Automatic annotation (TrEMBL), chain A:
The chain crosses the membrane at residues 12-37, 84-108, 120-141, 171-193, 214-239, 270-291. Keywords: Cell membrane, Membrane, Transmembrane, Transmembrane helix, Transport. GO terms for biological process: transmembrane transport. The keyword Cell membrane applies. Belongs to the binding-protein-dependent transport system permease family. CysTW subfamily. It is found in: Cell membrane. SUPFAM superfamilies: MetI-like. InterPro entries: MetI-like (IPR000515), MetI-like_sf (IPR035906). This is Putrescine/spermidine ABC transporter permease. It is a multi-pass membrane protein.
UniProtKB/TrEMBL annotation, chain B:
Residues 23-253 form the ABC transporter domain. This is Spermidine/putrescine import ATP-binding protein PotA. It comes from Xaviernesmea oryzae. Part of the ABC transporter complex PotABCD involved in spermidine/putrescine import. Responsible for energy coupling to the transport system. The complex is composed of two ATP-binding proteins (PotA), two transmembrane proteins (PotB and PotC) and a solute-binding protein (PotD). It is an enzyme of class 7 (translocase). It catalyses: ATP + H2O + polyamine-[polyamine-binding protein]Side 1 = ADP + phosphate + polyamineSide 2 + [polyamine-binding protein]Side 1. GO terms for cellular component: ATP-binding cassette (ABC) transporter complex.
C-alpha cells in the first residue's frame, strides 16, 4: 500500500515538469510550426488554412493537405535570412567570448575572496536585475552616444580629440550583451571555481608549475563545466536578442530577432516569421542536443570503461 | 648501560656531533595576524631520516611542513636544506615534494597522467616519462589501474597514487601531511610498514606530520612532539615513551600514572615520598621538599594478591580494584589507592585462561621497580 502510494507520488512529481514543458513549450511550438506551414491572408487570423474543429475529420484533413513547406523554401531562397542568421550567430559568438573574458576574472576573484564577503559579492552580481532591463539598455545609449558620458570622459582626459562613434555599431551591441548577460556567465563560473579544492593548485605548484601554468593545467580545465554552462546561458538568448540590437545597434545591423520582429509587426506575415522562429530554434537546439549527447556518452564510456 | 626500548638502532646520525643536518630550522617563527603558529623553533633533520612531527591540532606541525614545501614563508628565522637557505624560493623550485592530506589528485587526469604531471612539467622526454611512470605504478602496485580516474579508485588506491605522484620526481625530501589519516585501521597498519620499506629502499628523507602517536611511534626514526608552536621534545620513539622530558610529553604519548609527591632525605639519599606513603629513591639528588612527579607507565605496574616479598626492591601500595577494562590482548586494572588516587596497571593476557581472576572491589597490591618511573620536575 505504502509502496503504491509512493509510486504514484513519484509519477506525480515527474508529471509536473513534463506537464510544464508540454503546455508551455511543446504545444506553443506545434502552433508556431503549424502557422509556419500556412500562407498569409488578409484575414483574422492573418493566415490560411484555419482549422475548423467543428467540421469533423474530413475538414481537418482538407486543411492539413493545404499545409506546405513553401515558407521554408522562401527562407532558403532569400539571402537576407541566411545573412541574418549568420550575423546573429557571429554577434552572439563574439559577445559570448567577450563575456567569458570579463566574467572569468570576476568569478575567480569572487571564489578567492574571504568566505565572509562572498555572499555580498554574489548579491552585487545579481543587483542589476533589480532595475528594469529596458532602463539599463537605455542608460547605455546615454553613455555611448557621441556626446555621451563615455566620450566626454575620454575628451576631458585628452585621450581623443573627437568623439568615438560607438552607438549604432556592432561594438555597442557587444557592450550591451556583455553588460546584460554578465551575471549568467559569472554565476556558473563562480560555482565551479568556488568548490574547487585549493590544495589542487598547491599540488600543481609543488610538482613544478608556476602559478600561471598551474592555472592553465589544473584550475581552468576543472572549471570547464562552468565555462560551458555560462557560455550556453549567454549564447542562446544572445542569438535571438532583439532589444539590445534594436536600441544600441545601427540600422544596418542584421540580427534574426529583428528580422523576425519586422516580418511579424511590419509585414504582418505570421507564417514567414513563424518559419524564421522554427529555423532559429532548430539551429540552436540541434547542435546543443548533439553536444550534450556526446558528453553524456563520453561520461558513460568513462564510467563503464576499463 | 641499558638501552631504551627492546631493539637496537644502527641508524642514529643525530647522536653524531659531526653529522651535518640536511634540513635545519633556525629560530623559525610564523605568525598569522595575532596568532603565533610556530614560535622561535629550531630543529635539525638528517638525511635518510624518517622524521615525525607529532602534536594535536593547531600545534603548528602542518605550518612547519608547509613552510618546508614553500606554501608559507617564515615571519622570522631561517630554514636551510642541504646547506642552502630556502628563503624566497617558491614551491615550484624546491627539491621537495609533498603528499597532501586530501591527496589532491587531479580529478580530470588518469592515474598515469597524475603521476606524470611533475615529470612533464620538468620537460622530461616522453619515453623516460613512460618508463618512470611504469616504475612508480609498480612500486605502489597499481599497474592495472593506470587508465583510471581518481574517482574510480578506493581510498587506499588514491593514497598510493598520491604517494607515487609525489615520489615520481625523486625529491630529496618527501613531505607527508597525515598520509594515513583517511584510511581505516587495518589498511593504515599495512601501509605504515609499506611506507617504511619504501623510505628505506629509496633512501629518502621523509618528514611526516601526524596527530596519531601510534603511527609516529611505528614509522619514525625520531619524533618531535609539538605543542603551541614549540617543540617540546625531539627523540627516538623509545626515548619519548620511556624517558619523556615533561608532563606534556608523558601524558601525550600513551597512558601514564603520575605519582605526585615531595622530595625527602632518607639515609643520605633523595627519595620521593608519594601521597600513599611510599618512598622511591631518586636517581639524582634534589632539594628537599620540592614537589616532583614520578611517571610510571601502566605496564610497569604489577598487581598481585600477595604482598611482594621484603627486600625484592619493589615499591608496593595496597589498593582496591575500581574498574577492569578487558582489551583481549591485555587487561587494564584501575586501582584506587588509599589516597583516593586511581592508577592504571595493565597486564598481558599471555595465557588463555586464568585461575581465580581478580574481581571488582578486591584488595590487592600494586608494585613497581624503582627504575620503572621517570622523575618529572616540571
Amino acid at each position: 500500500m505504502q509502496n503504491a502510494i509512493s509510486a504514484v507520488t513519484r509519477r506525480l512529481v515527474i508529471l509536473i515538469p513534463y506537464g510544464w514543458l508540454l503546455f508551455f513549450f511543446l504545444i506553443p511550438f506545434l502552433i508556431v510550426l503549424r502557422i509556419s506551414m500556412s500562407t498569409t491572408a488578409v484575414a483574422m487570423p492573418p493566415y490560411t488554412p484555419v482549422f475548423d474543429w467543428t467540421g469533423g475529420w474530413e475538414s481537418i484533413r482538407a486543411s492539413l493537405s493545404q499545409l506546405s513547406l513553401d515558407n521554408y523554401t522562401w527562407l532558403a531562397g532569400d539571402p537576407l535570412y541566411f545573412n541574418a542568421y549568420i550575423s546573429s550567430l557571429l554577434i552572439a559568438l563574439v559577445s559570448t567570448a567577450l563575456t567569458l573574458l570579463v566574467a572569468y576574472p570576476m568569478a575567480y576573484g569572487m571564489a578567492k575572496a574571504p568566505t565572509t564577503i562572498r555572499p555580498t559579492l554574489v548579491m552585487l552580481v545579481i543587483l542589476p536585475f533589480w532595475t528594469s532591463f529596458l532602463i539599463r539598455v537605455y542608460a547605455w545609449i546615454g553613455i555611448l552616444k557621441p556626446e555621451g558620458l563615455f566620450n566626454q570622459f575620454l575628451l576631458s582626459l585628452g585621450l581623443i580629440s573627437e568623439p568615438l562613434i560607438i552607438l549604432n555599431t556592432n561594438w555597442a551591441i557587444y557592450i550591451g550583451i556583455v553588460y546584460c548577460y554578465l551575471p549568467f556567465m559569472v554565476l556558473p563560473l563562480y560555482s565551479a571555481l568556488e568548490k574547487m579544492d585549493h590544495s589542487l593548485t598547491e599540488a600543481a605548484l609543488d610538482l613544478g608549475c608556476t602559478p600561471i601554468q598551474a592555472f592553465w593545467r589544473v584550475t581552468f580545465p576543472l572549471s570547464l563545466p562552468g565555462v560551458i554552462a555560462g557560455c550556453l546561458l549567454v549564447f542562446i538568448p544572445a542569438v535571438g536578442e532583439f532589444v539590445i540590437p534594436d536600441l544600441l545597434g545601427g540600422s544596418e545591423t542584421l540580427m534574426i530577432g529583428r528580422t523576425l520582429w519586422n516580418e511579424f509587426n511590419g509585414n504582418r506575415d505570421w507564417p514567414v516569421s513563424s518559419a524564421v522562429a522554427v529555423v532559429l530554434l532548430l539551429l540552436l537546439v540541434i547542435p546543443i542536443m548533439l553536444f550534450q549527447n556526446a558528453q553524456a556518452r563520453a561520461e558513460r564510456a568513462e564510467r563503464e570503461g576499463r | 648501560m641499558k638501552s631504551l626500548g627492546i631493539f637496537r638502532r644502527s641508524f642514529a646520525p643525530w647522536a653524531d656531533p659531526n653529522a651535518k643536518p640536511f634540513i635545519s630550522f633556525r629560530n623559525v617563527t610564523k605568525r598569522f595576524g595575532d596568532f603565533t603558529a610556530v614560535d622561535n623553533l629550531s630543529l635539525d633533520i638528517f638525511t635518510r631520516e624518517f622524521f615525525a612531527l607529532l602534536g594535536g591540532s593547531g600545534c603548528g606541525k602542518s605550518t612547519l611542513l608547509r613552510m618546508l614545501a614553500g606554501f608559507e614563508q617564515p615571519t622570522s628565522g631561517e630554514i636551510t636544506l642541504d646547506g642552502q637557505s630556502l628563503a624566497g624560493i617558491p614551491p615550484y623550485r624546491r627539491p621537495v615534494n609533498m603528499m597532501f592530506q586530501s591527496y589532491a589528485l587531479f580529478p580530470h587526469m588518469t592515474v598515469e597522467k597524475n603521476i606524470a604531471f611533475g615529470l612533464k612539467q620538468d620537460g622530461m622526454p616522453k619515453t623516460e616519462i613512460a618508463e618512470r611512470v611504469a616504475q612508480m605504478l609498480k612500486l605502489v602496485k597499481l599497474e592495472s589501474f593506470a587508465g583510471r580516474k581518481p574517482h574510480q579508485l578506493s581510498g587506499g588506491q588514491r593514497q598510493r597514487v598520491a604517494l607515487a605522484r609525489s615520489l615520481a620526481k625523486r625529491p630529496k625530501v618527501l613531505l607527508l601531511d597525515e598520509p594515513l589519516g583517511a584510511l581505516d585501521k587495518k589498511l593504515r597498519e599495512e601501509t605504515q610498514f609499506e611506507l617504511m620499506d619504501l623510505q628505506y629502499e629509496l633512501g629518502l628523507t621523509f618528514v611526516v606530520v601526524t596527530h596519531d602517536q601510534e603511527e609516529a611511534m611505528t614509522m619514525s626514526d625520531r619524533i618531535a612532539v609539538m605543542s603551541q608552536g614549540r617543540v617540546i621534545q625531539v627523540a627516538t620513539p623509545a626515548e619519548i615513551y620511556e624517558a619523556p622530558n615533561s608532563r606534556f610529553v608523558a601524558e601525550f604519548i600513551g597512558d601514564v600514572n603520575m605519582m605526585e609527591g615531595r622530595v625527602a632525605l632518607e639515609n643520605g639519599h633523595s627519595v620521593l615520598k608519594t601521597e600513599d606513603g611510599v618512598s622511591v629513591p631518586l636517581p639524582e639528588p634534589l632539594a628537599e621538599g620540592r614537589e616532583v612527579a614520578l611517571a610510571v607507565r601502566p605496564e610497569k605496574l604489577k598487581v598481585s594478591r600477595a604482598a611482594p616479598p621484603e627486600g625484592a626492591n619493589l615499591y608496593a601500595v595496597r589498593g582496591e580494584i575500581w574498574d577492569i577494562a578487558y582489551f583481549g590482548d591485555m587487561t587494564v586494572f584501575h586501582v584506587k589507592l588509599p589516597s583516593g588516587k586511581i592508577v592504571k596497571a595493565s597486564s598481558l593476557n599471555a595465557t588463555r585462561g586464568v585461575e581465580d581472576p581478580f574481581g571488582y572491589d578486591e584488595q590487592i597490591w600494586v608494585s613497581f621497580e624503582p627504575q620503572a618511573g621517570v622523575v618529572l620536575k616540571g
